[in-house]
DNA sequence: AGATAAAACCGACAGGCAATCGGTTTTATC
DNA sequence: GATAAAACCGATTGCCTGTCGGTTTTATCT
């Protein structure tokens, strides 16, 4: 006799931490890019006036960013001194990568694909800038190969 | 007598619908880019085998995408026929804008910033590709201005 | 027009994440 | 070892996606 089995998928989702950044997290990152380092108290002092909240909230946010590997920390006295582990440009690159990777083929670099989507909206200055970066990169490679 | 008032900020958050896309939403978008149009039943038929779920789930997702203004729809018989209202490239551009706008100055373009940190990791082919797109874009502009 | 079936619509719930903050534990320092 | 500072823990809120059952609407058929 045939045994019939209900074959359902668990529909598992969520694999990669695509690293969404909250509003406060972004602000804190920007603070650290500007000031190099800061402990919770310093960061709190900076945001207290402009947006309220408590020291604890800042601490949580710093910790969350640390766990996301976006900040480094070292202990000094009682407190951790935090600093950005990733630069602004690199973070932008990673965010773009995250948000576009599902829409680009494996063969192409997501930034290149992204660029072809956006180039029409760029100014001539920005195009020039980009070209300058490209040429600079090429020059660097020629240098290296002749060493 | 002086009246002292506790002046606290409500700390309001969330203003702009920054439009985060869920996993299923991305899949549905890709389906519609490939097939041009589809009603809930068709989309469901396509995903039923590969990921399970119910027709209702697909319907909800189509509706959410519609409300996000990413899909258009027209009634045909009982059902809505959906189609993408935004192209793949335009969506990529918008996603990049959303995710990076908090980090870039108005004058600069997020992609330029991103490239400056990633260029070292790109292959020569990709650099060439990029340059080709730049030149193509410039050519297009020269064309337009002479019309 | 009224019955019928199809699809939309509504509401609820689970799971995840950022923000928030009170309270407890850890720990550097005196 | 006492003390105060900061980390840590846990709970709560709000928002979003995915999920789906059940009800209402509606196009169509007789």
Give a description of the structure.
The structure is a homodimer. Chain A is mostly helical. Chain A folds into two domains: about 25-85, Winged helix-like DNA-binding domain superfamily/Winged helix DNA-binding domain (Arc Repressor Mutant, subunit A, Orthogonal Bundle), CATH 1.10.10.10; about 105-145, no CATH class. Chain A has helices at about 25-35, 40-50, 55-65, 90-100, 110-120, 125-145, and strands spanning about 35-40, 70-75, 80-85. Chain A has a three-stranded antiparallel beta sheet with strand order 1-3-2. Chain A starts with about 20 loop residues before the first helix and ends with a helix. Chains A and B meet through helix 1, helix 4, helix 5 and helix 6 of A and helix 1, helix 4, helix 5 and helix 6 of B. Chain A binds a DNA duplex (30 and 30 nucleotides) through helix 1 and helix 3.
The CATH architecture of the largest domain in chain A can be given as Orthogonal Bundle
**β-sheet strand percentage of chain A:** 5-15%
Give the integer mean of the pLDDT values of chain A.
Answer: 88
The major sheet of chain A is characterized as: 3 strands, antiparallel
What would you give as the CATH superfamily of the largest domain in chain A?
A: Winged helix-like DNA-binding domain superfamily/Winged helix DNA-binding domain
CATH class division of the largest domain in chain A: Mainly Alpha
So what's the oligomer here?
A: homodimer
Radius of gyration of chain A, in Å, reads 22 Å
Helical coverage of chain A, percent range = 55-70%
Strand tally of chain A is 3
Total domains of chain A, how many? 2
């Amino acid at each position: 006799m045939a045994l019939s089995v209900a074959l359902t998928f668990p529909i598992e989702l969520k694999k990669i931490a695509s690293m969404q950044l909250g509003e406060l997290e972004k602000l804190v990152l920007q603070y650290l890019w500007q000031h190099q380092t800061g402990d919770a108290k310093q960061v709190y002092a900076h945001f207290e006036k402009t947006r309220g909240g408590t020291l604890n909230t800042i601490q949580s946010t710093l910790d969350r960013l640390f766990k996301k590997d976006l900040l480094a920390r070292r202990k000094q006295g009682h407190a951790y001194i935090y600093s950005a582990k990733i630069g602004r440009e690199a973070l932008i690159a990673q965010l773009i990568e995250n948000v576009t990777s599902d829409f680009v083929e494996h063969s192409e670099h997501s930034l290149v694909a992204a660029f072809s989507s956006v180039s029409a909206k760029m100014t001539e200055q920005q195009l020039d800038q980009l070209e300058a970066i490209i040429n600079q990169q090429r020059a660097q490679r020629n240098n290296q190969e002749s060493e």
